[in-house]
Structure formats: C-alpha cells, structure tokens
Sequence to fold (466 residues):
Amino acid sequence: MERKNAWAAYDAAGMEKIEAFAKAYCAYIDGGKTERECVAESVTAAKAAGFEDLKDVIASGKALAAGDKVYVNWMNKSFVCFVIGSEPMESGMNILGAHIDSPRIDVKQNPLYEDSDLAYLDTHYYGGIKKYQWVAQPLALHGVICRKDGTTVTVAIGEDAADPVFYISDLLPHLAQEQMTKTAAKAIEGEELNLIIGGMPVKAEGEEKASVTAGVLAILKEKYGVEEEDFLSAELEIVPAGKAREVGFDRSMIAAYGHDDRVCAYPSMQAVLDFEGTPKYTLCAVLTDKEEIGSVGATGMNSRFFENIVAELCDAAGAPGDLALRRTLQNSRMLSSDVSAGFDPNFPGAFEKKNAAFLGRGVCFNKYTGSRGKSGSSDANAEYIAQLRRILDQEGVAFQTAELGRVDLGGGGTIAYMCAKFGMNVIDSGVAVLSMHAPYELISKVDLYEAYRCYCTFLRDAEPVK
Ligand code: MN
Ligand code: MN
Fold:
C-alpha cells in the first residue's frame, strides 16, 4: 500500500495557508538557532497569545480553571505550555512533545589561542554530526556569556548582513592526497574543528609584541564588556550563518539549519497557542533540550522537570497529590515528534521503500524507532494507533508510516520512551527530512503544514485509549 502525495489535495486557497505557515516557521527558526533562542521566541509568542507564566499563577494563589492558559520557561532551555481542559486532570492530557536543541559545534571552556598569526576558538561538537560537512563555510556564534557579577551578555554574531562571520578551514585538494584516502569519519577530526576568529595582530598596552588574541580580546572588552576568563561561564554555539531558504523552482521545500527538531517543535507549540476556546482535555506542548545527546541533564526529557511542572499544574488545577499526578500522566496521550529520515533517491539502499517516509506525503508516524531488534524503542500500542488513524482520516490529514531506514543499518531514539515510562500512550511522529544533522537540512512545506494540522486535530480529538 502506498500513501498519496499530499500536495494534490490543495487548491489555491490551501496553498496560501501552507505558504503563510511556512513563512511563520522560517521566521521562528531564523530567530531560534539555539535552544535558548527558541525558548525566548516561544515565551514571546505564548505571552502574545494570552498565556500566563505558571510561576506567577502559583505565586498569586489563583486556582486554574478550564480554559486557562499557562506556560513555563525551564532554565531558558526548555519550554512547556498548557491550556486547561474541562475534564478533570486525571483523565489525562493531550500532549505534543518535540526538541529544540540541534547538532552544532560548542565553544570549549578555555577556548582562546593563537597560531601563525590567526586567533582561534577551540571547540567540542554537540550531537551526531558528520564533521567534514561543517568546514569552509560562513559560521555564526550564538549564546550567552555569564559574568561573575551575575549579569549576562547575549550574543548572536554572523546573522546580520553587516556582521562578520567565522570560519573553520579545510585542506586544499592540491595537498589533500593523504586526507582523501581517510574514511569520511576521519577526514576532519574533532580537534580540527577550530574556529578562526581574527587575523590582525594588535599591540596591547604595556606589551612588547603584537598579538591577534590581544586584538580580539580588546574588541570583546569594548563591544561586550567581557574578559577572557568569562569564557569559563559562557555557552557559545557555532551554527551555520544565514537564513532558511526556499528550495526548488516551485519553492516547495525549505533548506535550513536545525529543522531537527524545530520543524516539529514550532507546529507543536503553535497548535497549542492557536487553540480556540476550552478544550475537553488539558492540552500541552513540551519543547525540550538535550535530545541530541541523549536527553540528559536538568533540561533534557530524562530530567524530572516535566513531571514537576505537571505536579504544580495539577495542584493549581484542583488535583493535588501524588496519585492525581500519576493518573494525569498515565492517562495522557502523546505525540512525541521528531524528524524522520526521508527516503533519499540518491541513497536508496539505506531504506526499505514500503516502510520509508517520503518528502511530500504528509506527517510521519514511527510505531517504533530503536536499533537492531527494536532495541531502545518505545513501541506504540496498536489500539492507540487505530484511534489516531480514525481522527486523522476524519479530518483528511495526510499521514504516512515509516521505520528509520533498513533493518540493522543503524538506528536512533527520541524522547518517546521517557514519556512512556509514566505509562501514557505515546507514539513517535514528525516530519521527513533529507540530510538530517547536516548544516542545511531539507523539508517539504506541505509536510510541515500537515504536521500542524495533525497536531491541531490531535489536541481537539484525541481521547483516553480504551
Ligand atoms: Mn531529533
Ligand atoms: Mn537529531
């Protein structure tokens, strides 16, 4: 059985909606190239949509009632928003989850050095990247530098046309005879990912010799008020410089940095923000950090931050206590969304075509992910999938089902199994992407829009699974 291409179902008015949503998405990812920037944008969007900070609600002692809208900014790296439903919390929530961290290159803690009249920042890559893809192109620097006095400088350098960019060099082909015989994994190694940040020696006051680092440090001091030591408490992320771009003569696709997983995070959040009226069940979108390195840390889905937030919410919504929390989580339904590996005609051997996701065929469901014998996977219940098929078909949402590539070729995991540990029904879903984890990844606009429609339908129609 083959799923149909989703574009065919759209007339001119429908195409306009796809376009408008794609534009809004591009604005979100152009402004959100790090998890922190995504959280900042999400908070702004939530406030504009009338959501209140849950912290303020709790502090005011106000009880949450059906129709109330709240959000949580967790450590500036994860974001959760809710709309309270008319049914009791214990009947469970309709939850959308996705991650907002993306593979990138981080700056080390003691990064600054000079070699051969060039100044560098030493780096440590984050997530699963093909290192050779990140050299010889314009790079931007995003993040925060936290000073000892408690103040924070936010930086985003390399995105404005007037900004400088940064650069990691590669070896010229003329001298690359040895390099070209290495495996792709070794052609560029982790310690070779050194970021060029300056090339003009400057004489610092009282110094004999001019140095490039001295010049760079003087600029950092003047422009940002930071010292070399402040790198110790900085989080600086190196990402491709530049904006999302439309792809193809028909402009049907988008190439951008960080589709994984903002292409699911944005529509998940937006579906909750756009919900009109009072839902039957409480709605939730959770955008989390650290998925690319195993969902670890206090801002990753393995942390109890989400459980703690739901505990606070239950308490404020008149369902206090541990048992109410457990029932709320266990009776929930979740779409855990992450990008799916799109079938790539350039590399057909990596896929099994009957069970692959195709660009343009709508939102994608993975019953299971994992590797080898489904190891590490959260295998969604057939009863739950049947309900999803029913509500999506009723609404005419285009969807497809897929596995992550051929059996035994590799594999991967998402945040689904961490939510499944609460006993809730959860399935992996999301948008198909080509060149996943590359500096520029490719998606189809229609898949983005079908994901949004899928999320809106799920929020409205998903019910406790019998
Ligand atoms: Mn992902
Ligand atoms: Mn990923």
User: Anything to note?
Assistant: Residues 99, 260-261, 291, 338-339 surround manganese (II) ion (ligand 1) (CB under 6 Å). The first strand starts at residue 52 and ends at 53. The mean pLDDT is 96. The domain at 104-240 is CATH 2.30.250.10 (Aminopeptidase i, Domain 2).
